[in-house]
Design goal:
Elements: H1 16-30, H2 42-49, H3 53-65, E1 69-72, E2 76-79, E3 107-108, H4 121-132, H5 135-138, H6 148-162, E4 171-174, H7 177-187, E5 194-198, H8 203-211, E6 215-219, E7 221-222, E8 225-226, H9 228-234, E9 238-241, H10 255-268, E10 271-275, H11 291-294, E11 300-305, E12 317-320, H12 323-332, H13 342-353, H14 356-383, E13 387-392, E14 397-402, H15 408-417, E15 420-421, E16 423-424, E17 431-434, H16 443-464
Length: about 475
């Protein structure tokens, strides 16, 4: 056997066993060494290459571990099939998104961030540090359902803030709404695999339902919420709703429609999934009690989160199950791995128990009330009647309907060229301005830049008329 393919150089910094390993591996992958071929014994190869037996043995062992060779007792080492096919050049399919560097963002109206200047990072770091100092706690896996300390704190917090009726045992912790919905879909598997939600829907929830095999049925809405006749005629027994903030209008559901939904669930044995994203952040009036509490904790699964209360990067959400679903969950709870950080869970529990969450919430309500007024006033002064404004209070955003035939994507692009980042609504037909992340003192400047970006477009539209 010739060893021309074995490239060993004692001058290189890499150990000889690594060089030997890589040489044999390349020979197997290229087909130079065929499947089934027997390699020299450790001693024979060491003698031929004038290297130590330990060097050859180390290389052979690594190749066996990775599946390039197989050691057969009393027979030696044999090559396994590992020849690689011809390398494939990866190309980007037509229409695939490409990551390209865009213009720098000076003013961020995105809905996926918060103003870091109004986050009590010092206090949050202290809570994290206190947990990290408790080595006996953090050196183990967390509870499948979520840390009891946090579930206990959330039981009291959600009742005091939103009127949610849930014991600590009913609460399940997860890294946001989507992981919790995935668990819920598993518990609902034996029910009709169809879920209703009001138009235009909610992309993140729809994706989870689709992944879990649920058919999503979009319901038309009226002034009060999803139309009850449409819900009844759909025949579904599962409905996803956002009673504190309708995506379509930014308004909350009136008490009459809430009672109709609860009555529907009770009469047909259905379940309402209440997405209460930032429900306690309402600042123009007192927060509306959660539907779950209005229904006495029956027939409603409540989901809450903290993305705008703390930091979007703190991925913690919670779900209050109905008694029936809780029994199902208990039978399989140990099969679920917790997706939220144990350290952050315990830090959040301390944050809530100490009263800091409520104090921070009061500060945020004042802050967002002020931001809302400033943004609304600046938009009216700059744009006049060329845009109409719809406030979405708890998502901390405004929906703009621009009086122009230009596509929304083009309007977003024009804004970004001026350094203003804006978003689009769920259906992609309107502009979405989130005001949680932009500093208060930048709002007027940002709106002026936005007006400068769209000024020519608006003038053309005015001249048409």
């Amino acid at each position: 056997m010739t060893y021309d393919f074995l490239q060993l150089n004692r001058e290189l910094p890499a150990p000889l066993y690594q060089q030997l390993y890589h040489s044999i591996r390349r020979a197997v992958e290229s087909g130079h060494l065929k499947a089934g071929q027997r390699l020299p014994s450790i001693r024979a190869l060491a003698n031929d290459l004038q290297i130590s037996c330990t060097t050859v043995e180390s290389a052979y062992q690594q190749l066996c571990v990775e599946g390039y060779l197989r050691a057969q007792p009393q027979r030696g080492y044999f090559v396994l099939e590992a020849q690689r096919p011809e390398p494939i050049r990866l190309t980007v399919p037509p229409g695939s998104p490409r990551r390209v560097a865009g213009p720098p963002v000076r003013y961020n109206f995105g809905s996926d961030c918060v103003d870091s200047a109004n986050i009590d990072l010092k206090l949050w770091k202290r809570q994290i540090r206190d947990v990290l100092n408790r080595q006996e706690i953090i050196a183990s896996y967390g509870e499948h359902q979520g840390e009891y300390a946090l579930r206990h704190a959330l039981s009291a917090y959600s009742y005091g803030m939103r009127g949610v009726l849930a014991s600590p045992d009913q609460i399940v912790i997860g890294a946001g709404t989507q992981p919790l919905l995935s668990i819920l879909c598993g518990l609902l598997g034996d029910k009709d695999t169809a879920v209703a939600m009001e138009e235009p829907g909610f992309r993140q929830a729809e994706q989870v339902f689709s992944d879990c095999g649920f058919k999503v049925i979009k319901l038309p809405g009226d002034d009060d919420g999803p139309k009850m006749e449409a819900l009844l005629s759909s025949g579904v027994k599962l409905a996803f709703i956002s009673p504190s903030n309708r995506i379509r209008t930014g308004m909350s559901l009136p008490i009459s429609r809430r009672m109709e939904l609860l009555r529907w669930a009770s009469e047909c044995g259905g379940i309402l999934i209440e997405d209460d994203h930032n429900g306690e952040l309402r600042y123009r009036a007192r927060p509306i009690p959660a539907l779950q509490g209005m229904g006495g904790g029956q027939s409603v699964v409540y989901i809450g989160s903290f993305s705008k209360l703390l930091l979007p990067s703190v991925r913690i959400g919670y779900m209050a199950l109905t008694p029936e679903l809780l029994e199902r969950y208990r039978r399989s709870a140990k099969n679920y791995n917790q997706t939220a950080s144990k350290i952050e869970q315990l830090a959040l529990a301390n944050y809530i128990r100490s009263g800091q969450m409520e104090r921070h919430l009061r500060h945020l309500r004042k802050l967002y009330s002020s931001k809302c007024s400033r943004l609304s006033r600046a938009l009216k002064q700059a744009f006049g009647t060329t845009v109409s404004i719809l406030l979405q209070e708890t998502p901390l955003s405004m929906i703009l309907t621009v009086q122009s035939d230009m596509k929304v994507e083009m309007l977003c692009d024009l804004a970004l060229r001026r350094g203003v980042r804006v978003g689009t609504t769920q259906n992609g037909k309107k502009i979405l301005l989130g005001f949680a992340g932009i500093p208060s003192d930048q709002i007027e400047e940002a709106v002026q830049c936005l007006y400068a970006a769209w000024k020519d477009v608006l003038k053309k539209e005015k001249n048409k008329k």
